[in-house]
Write a structure and sequence with these properties.
This protein has one domain. The protein is built from four helices and six strands. A six-stranded antiparallel beta sheet has the order 1-2-3-4-5-6. Strand 4 and strand 5 form a beta hairpin. It is elongated.
């Protein structure tokens, strides 16, 4: 090579060209578009499993509550099952479930405990129902869950309270 050719020869700069960077970013974007729906399904599934586990925790707490407070029977609200563990346990704040669950909301699900109305207020509550509904159907969960004193967890595939199928 002559000195003239060396002087005018284009030097390749260090680093990547704009086109190379755009290709890499495009590939990353495509991979992200494939991963996001899978992540959403995984998150919904894990929220549903957490809701079923929380229902079983509530059922165990109800059994302990009924044993400890025979005159009351089953608890008719989440507050009675929750409360401060360190404080003295009472029928209105027994501390039998964790604080995050006692608030009635955990992992994208809202929990409610209810007892049917009774004619004799002095009689203990002998039945209860628990419902776990997704905070946002399709986003935090797809199915609604229900349970009664039998401990059988049933689900509503539409995310509501029409629980007819045994949850699996």
């Amino acid at each position: 090579m002559t000195t003239m050719q060396k002087r005018y020869r284009r030097q390749r700069p260090n680093g990547f060209t704009l086109m190379e960077l755009l290709i890499v970013i495009s590939i990353m974007l495509i991979l992200m578009l494939l991963a996001v729906p899978s992540y959403k399904k995984f998150r919904i599934h894990s929220n549903e499993l957490s809701a079923i586990s929380s229902l079983k925790t509530i059922q165990q707490a109800q059994m302990m509550y009924q044993t400890n407070y025979k005159r009351v029977g089953y608890a008719c609200d989440m507050k009675s099952l929750g409360g401060d563990d360190a404080a003295k346990s009472t029928a209105t704040s027994s501390g039998m479930i964790p604080g995050d669950l006692a608030t009635g909301s955990k992992d994208g699900y809202r929990f409610t405990v209810a007892c049917p109305s009774k004619t004799d207020d002095s009689a203990p509550n002998v039945t209860y129902t628990v419902q776990a509904l997704p905070a946002s159907v399709g986003s935090t969960g797809n199915r609604g869950f229900c349970m009664d004193e039998s401990g059988t967890v049933k689900d509503d595939p539409q995310g509501g309270t029409n629980c007819s199928e045994i949850a699996q």
